[in-house]
C-alpha cells in the first residue's frame, strides 16, 4: 500500500492535505487524531467512495486512485464503517455470505435450473460463512436479522463481513466505539488472532488508546487533515505536537498507556 | 424437513393447481375464465414489480410502460395481415405478411421490453428514491405519448383491435408459474442476495465487491421482461390495445398489490394479486347491483388505507412461504 501526496477538500475545508503513507504487507497501522481530523475521509479515499483532488494511491503494483469501489474491494481491500452499515434485513449469515461471494461469477441460468454446481457452490458459501461466524462467536445468531443484534455484535459482524471478502488489507473504523473495557479487550485479542490467521495488513482508526497502543506497530496522527506525526507507539506518546493536538481532549493520550 | 419431500409437496400443489386450471378451462363459464386470466396476469405483473421495487428497491412508477411495449409488440405481431397492411403503413413491407402465434409474440414482447429497460435503466438507475420515481413516471408518459402519436405503427388513439384471442388459461397460468419460479430462484441465488444487499446499504454492498449499478440494471431488465410478457398475454386476451389501457390505473393497482402483499415477498405478491382480483370483481358485481357506480374504487381505496395503517409491512412483510411453516399448522404427511 502506497499513498502519494493525496489531498481533498470539501467546500473550503481541507479534509486531507498532502497525505502520505507507505505500508508494508502484514503490518498494523493505527490512525489517530481528534474528531474531524480526516481519518474516515482517508478510508473513503482508499476504498474509492470519494476521489482525491490530487495525489495517487497504489495497491500492490497497481494504481487504484480512480477505480470504482467494488473493483477496489475485489482487488483485496475491505473495510468496516464507523457508523455501522450492515444489510439490516438480511440474516447474520447472509451478511457474511454476501462478503464470501466476492470474486465469484455465478451464472443466472445455473441458479434458475438449480444445477449441481450451483448447489455445491451455495453449500460452500454457507460453510465458509459459518466458519467465519464461529471465529467471531456469532454462530448462534446466524439466522437472526442483522438489525436484531446487540451493538457490539453488529460491530463484530461488520468485521466478519469485511473478512469474508478475503482482503489483503483490512481497514477498521473505530471498532471499539461504544464498547466497554471488557469487550474492547476481547476485540484486541480477536484482531490479533485474525491478523495471523488471515495474514492481514491492517489499518485501524481508533480513539481508544487501550486498543491502539498494544496493537499497532506504526501510528499516524492526523490533525485538521495534516499528518502531524508518524512513529512507533512509544515515539508517538512522547511527541509534544501530538500531546498538543490532543490537549483537553477526552482521550488525553498521555494518561493512557500500553 | 428433507428437501426431497418439500419438492414432492410443491409438485403436488402444482398438480392440484393445474387440475383446477383444467376444470376451469373445460367447465367454467366465460366470465370465470376471464377473471382467472386476469388474475394470472396480475400475478405476473405484481411479482415482477416486486423484483425491481420490493427486492431490489428501485422506486419505479414506470413498470406499466414495459407492459405497454409488450402489448404493442404482441398486437403488431399477431394482427391479421390484411389489417396490418391497411393500418400499419409504417412497418417494413416484409412484416405485413407475417402473423405469429402467441409464443413467439410473448417472447419477442418480453425481449423488446427488456432491451428498452436496459437502455432506459442505464440512464434512470443513476437516480435514487423520489428522483427515480419521477424519472420512471416520465418514461411511462413518453411511452404513452409515442403510442398515441406514432400513427403508422400503433394506430394512435384508436388503438389496435381485432387481435386474435390466443390467450387462454393454460398460457397465463404457465407464464405465471414460470415467473414466480424464476423470481424465486433469483431471490435464493447470489444475485438475489446481492440485490437485497444493495437495497439495504448501497455503499456497504460496494465495499464487498458488488457492482451496484449493474445488479440494479439486472433486476430492472428481468422485471421488464416478465412485465412485457404479461402485456402480450393481456393484448391477446382483451383483443384490443390502446394507449389509455396502460397508464395510471394499472400502475397504481400493481403498486398497491405489491405493497399490500409485502415488499420483497414473492409469496405476498401472489396472495395479494389473487385476493385483489377477486375483491375487485366482487365489488364490481356489488356496484352494478346497487347501481352506485364508482363505489368499488372507494371501497378498494379504503381496504388499501386500512392495510397501510394496521399492517404497513403488508401481509407477508418480506417473509416467504415454506412447507416447514405449513406443517407447523396443518399436519402434512
Ligand atoms: N462527504 C463529505 N462532504 C463534506 N464534508 C465532509 C465529507 N466527509 C467529511 N467531511 C468533512 O471533512 C472533515 C474530516 O471528516 P472525517 O469524517 O474524515 O473526520 P474523522 O477524523 O473521521 O472524525 P471522527 O473522529 O469524528 O470520525 C470534517 O470537517 C468533515 O465535516
Ligand atoms: Mg471518522
Briefly summarize what is shown.
The complex is a heterodimer of chains A (258) and B (333). Chain A is α/β, with parallel strands linked by helices and 258 residues long.
Describe this structure in words.
The complex is a heterodimer of chains A (258) and B (333). By secondary structure, chain A is α/β, with parallel strands linked by helices. Chain A has 2 domains: 1-76 and 179-258, 3-Layer(aba) Sandwich (Rossmann fold), CATH 3.40.50; 85-166, P-loop containing nucleotide triphosphate hydrolases (Rossmann fold, 3-Layer(aba) Sandwich), CATH 3.40.50.300. Chain A has 10 helices and 10 strands. Chain A has helices at residues 39-46, 69-75, 92-100, 108-112, 116-135, 151-164, 181-197, 209-215, 233-238, 240-246; strands at 2-10, 13-22, 28-32, 54-59, 62-63, 77-79, 169-173, 201-205, 218-223, 226-231. In chain A, the strands form 2 sheets. A 6-stranded mixed sheet of chain A has the order 6-7-8-3-9-10, sandwiched between helices. Chain A has a 4-stranded antiparallel sheet with strand order 2-1-4-5, covered by helices on one side. The radius of gyration of chain A is 19 Å and the shape is globular. Chain B is an all-alpha fold. Chain B has a domain at 17-244. Chain B is 75% helix and 0% strand. Chain B has 16 helices and no strands. Chain B has helices spanning 3-27, 30-55, 63-78, 81-87, 93-96, 102-124, 129-149, 151-154, 169-187, 190-200, 202-207, 212-238, 248-261, 266-290, 295-310, 323-329. In chain B, α10 (190-200) packs across α12 (212-238). The longest helix of chain B has 27 residues, at 212-238. The radius of gyration of chain B is 20 Å and the shape is globular. The interface between A and B is medium-sized, with 35 and 25 residues. The site of magnesium ion has 3 residues of chain A, from α1.
